[in-house]
Amino acid sequence: MPGEIVVIGGGPAGLAAAAAASDAGCRQVLLIERDRELGGILNQCVHDGFGNLIFGGSMTGPEYAHRFIREVRQRPAIAVLTGTMVLSLARDRRLTYVNRDGVREIQPGAVILAMGCRERSRFQAFIPGYRPAGVYTAGTAQRLINMEGVMPGENAVILGSGDVGLIMARRLTLEGANVLGVFEIAPRPGGLTRNVVQCLDDFQIPLFLEHTVTFIHGKKRLTGVSVAPLDRAGKPDLTRERFIACDTLILSVGLIPENELSRQAGLILDPVSRGPVVDQEMSCSVPGIYAGGNVVHVHDLVDYVSHTARLAGRGAQRFLEGRTPAGRVIMQAGENVSYIIPQSITLPVSETVDLYLRVREARRSVHLKITHQGNVLKQKIERIVRPPEMIHLALEPALLTGLSDGHTVSITVSGGEPA
Amino acid sequence: MSKQLKDLVLELFTENDLEQYGLAVSEADGLLRLAGTVPTWELVVRAGQLAGSLPGVRSVVNEIGATSVEPAPYKAPPGDPSVIGTADIVIIGAGVVGTAIARELARYKLDIVLVEKDSDVGCGASRANNGMVHSGIVQEPNSLRSKLNVRGNAMFEELCRELDVPFKRCGLIGLVFKEEELILLDLVKARAEADGIPVEVISRERALAMEPALSPETKGAFLAPSTAMTSPYKLTIAYAENAVTNGVRLFLNTEVTAMEEKDGRVCKVITSRGSFNTRFLINAAGIYADRIAAMTGEPEFTLHPRKGELLIFDREKTNDHAAMATGLLAIGLDPHTKGGGTMFTMDGNPEWGPTAQETADREDTAVTAAGINRIIEKFNPLLPGYDPNQSLINFFAGIRAATYTEDFHIAPSSRLKGLINVAGIQSPGLVAAPAIAAMVLDLLRQEGLNMDEKEQYEPRRFAPARFKELPVDEQNSLIRSNPAYGHIICRCEQVTEAEITAALHRPVPALTLDAVKRRTRAGMGRCQGSFCLPRVLLIMSRELGIPLAQLTKSGLGSPLFSRQTKEAPPYAKEDWFHAR
């Protein structure tokens, strides 16, 4: 259907995108969710801390999801298919999905990717050893405890101090397990500072920075892990390796955007963010395919996920109405910038452009500068920047009036001192 | 000690050592027996291999200990002598060899029992190898390994057709990277032809045309067109299913603890779950076959575990990878394996390895950092455009059950009539399996087993439906017949609820998470089960009637959970679709 927008994924991004597409005027939105209910990963996030930016108050994951599910249910233009999996997506937006009614092929006018992200496994983190029971990724462990009502184990070591790992340290403790320590390969925690304080410090769980798990022991069930600090070259120092007896290893070693469909559709992917490249309306490199939330890059806060997904919802509807691009400006990651979303800005610009970026290294008192051919478009001083925390910048249309097709805008985060 | 052996042993040890280590050698009837204590496991193995390489030595019992290795005496579980049944023949071990023998014997009017100590069939080397159906080019001429390899290779395609198991005759390319090694190609060809194996020497250009991702450093190559690939665990499962369909009784979680004899002949085998009266016993116990053989009271051979580590890569970015099986010429590189290579599994994942590492522990299936690095350093030069670090999704290790003569040991026991040892089945055990089974049947005939053909024998076995591989119209008709085919559980591999349910109710049912994974591929994709694991377990719990908290990864001793914290969710017992 040419007037139809299909949203793939009914988590925080898909819910927000569907509602926004409807609000922007789309009369036919199809929201496809593989699980038996809407809400995505939020359903297993029983801790609070969601919604501070959007709703001005902290709520749990299911509460946050519920707000958006209600929005979706209230909009008659949105049809929802749960228990439905998208099997393929082509460049021309032809997609097939399957559910209990069969396999169907459709070709909507626009598609919004909102599949979220997946967890890196023990193998992708190159952790050698046996393959016993008792090794879980943090998100899986979270689902098992919070939704299925089973404990992965009683004595746990956590590798990786990403947010999910930190939250699971607290969750396991509250459920009566002993968390023997969180080991982080980097010199700084991978998650938000508030999570380090609330999930580790408050429970006196030790955090070992510049450490990693070097071996997984146990032929049937995990019996322990070897851990070692890193040497100066950043490799595990095996002369200082030690054994920790435990029955559970929880891995929080990174999240990667879910890319299967993005690849199939031939979208250009950003090697750093690992998701599709997008413009300010969340349009991907193939016309009519939009993306929002963690499928684009892994966000720190769900509020931003909802926000970018809303942009995608509005953008997709604008595409259906006939958008006429007048050129493209490339966003270039300069000094101490790891990546920028969006990777490009499509001209003309009529609304404020939201930029999200991550730094490569943590620094204090830095000078953030947005320039075009040496001219400073915008600048500000940031007190502290850290890789886990996204930096948000607003670029007003007036700042971009001098730009035309092929121009490059570069962003740098310079000066300051190591944090 | 024989003069010849002593000369060899002195290459390894000084006269002083011999005394200090208390090395003792005795020989009777071609069986060499070694005893003593040396400092390292490496020396234990080298002493055994020296003994095994002597002319006229049929078998080696190596009882040398290593001070560096903590002795782990074999502890058989308590046996249950109460007789639970009678069988014409009991087969010990449901690996590819034991199941192949069971399936071939099932053609005859025989009461066959197959016992397996693990929770599934094919839990040893049969699941942890690279799946290559070797041509036989690198086997020692005139060895049993060589003969059964060539014979097995010729039988394999038809076998896989009968059992509905994936098979692809993709050939193997062997490469040389130095001009001075080009001569090796002709040597390989000459030797292979002597054994009746087709090999063609091909130009560098042809090799690169066939495999554009090959290193431009390639100087020349040979092509062994009869090399093929299969799925080793699917073959074992198929063998077992077909055997069970034809009346073989399979007992999982059943470990043999002893055997009894009467007038020099086996009369009873005792297991952890009861005993069988039987006059014929097949020892196909893999890495434990020497211990089973020694239950007669006298050891007949010793196995030394040799670990092989393998890496599995994601299916994406395979353009940078060779499209067919390729292997490096092993001559002069590694004496104990063809040196492994790079290949594709039958499911399309690049696979590199295996390594060959002697280990004292028969269950040392750990992959080490050194092993991973060795594989990448060894094989990346073949495919320099491929980045293994970006695509690794799994690794595993298997244990080769090698004898010290390094050949298969397939023979009636010299101690006990009615017992046939099928041991030392290291590579190329997978390809040889059908030929081994045929050989064992011949031995049984010679030993006096009466074999009358059944009127009804079903040689064919059909693989369960694989939703992902079907055309859309067939997918839709499956869904119409069972809507659970429309419910994807494993997103990476597109495995449906109906496929998982089916795996739990096949002739050899999956009882553990790993068993489901091997049968359906749920959890074998790039996320390695982080999405589907809870969902697969809920289906298992519902179908098998086992509470979630009691499910295991791989059977006894591998619980997935420590306890239940809440009541099972309401949907756990229901059909998910109808739940909302």
Describe this structure in words.
The complex is a heterodimer of chains A (419) and B (580). Chain A is α/β, with parallel strands linked by helices. Chain A has helices at 12-23, 61-74, 138-148, 163-174, 193-200, 260-264, 302-321; strands at residues 4-8, 28-32, 78-81, 85-89, 95-99, 102-106, 110-113, 117-119, 135-137, 150-151, 155-159, 178-184, 207-209, 211-217, 224-229, 242-245, 248-251, 255-257, 289-291, 328-333, 337-341, 344-346, 353-359, 363-372, 375-385, 391-395, 408-414, 417-418. In chain A, strands 20, 22, 24, 25, 27 and 28 form a six-stranded mixed sheet that branches. A five-stranded parallel sheet of chain A has the order 3-2-1-7-19, covered by helices on one side. Chain A starts with a strand and ends with a strand. The model of chain B is unreliable at 330-337 and 576-580 (pLDDT under 50). With 580 residues, chain B is α/β, with parallel strands linked by helices. In chain B, helix 1 packs antiparallel against helix 3 (41-53) and helix 4 crosses helix 12 (429-446). Chain B is globular and about 75 Å long. The chains are: A alpha/beta (419), B alpha/beta (580). The interface between A and B is large, with 56 and 64 residues. Strand 10 (150-151) of chain A pairs antiparallel with strand 28 (563-564) of chain B.
Spans where pLDDT lies below 50 across 5 or more residues of chain B:
330-337, 576-580
On the 0-100 scale, what is the average pLDDT of chain B?
91
Could you estimate the helical fraction of the residues of chain B in percent? 25-40%
Give the total of beta strands of chain A: 28
The end-to-end distance of chain B, rounded to whole angstroms, is 79 Å
The portion of residues assigned to helices of chain A is: 10-25%
Q: How many DSSP H or I helices of chain A?
A: 7
The total beta strand count of chain B reads: 28
Question: Which chain pair has the greatest contact?
Answer: A-B, 56 and 64 residues
> What would you report as the Rg of chain B, rounded to the nearest angstrom?
25 Å
| Span between termini of chain A | 53 Å
- What's the overall geometry of chain B? globular
Low-confidence stretches of chain A are: none
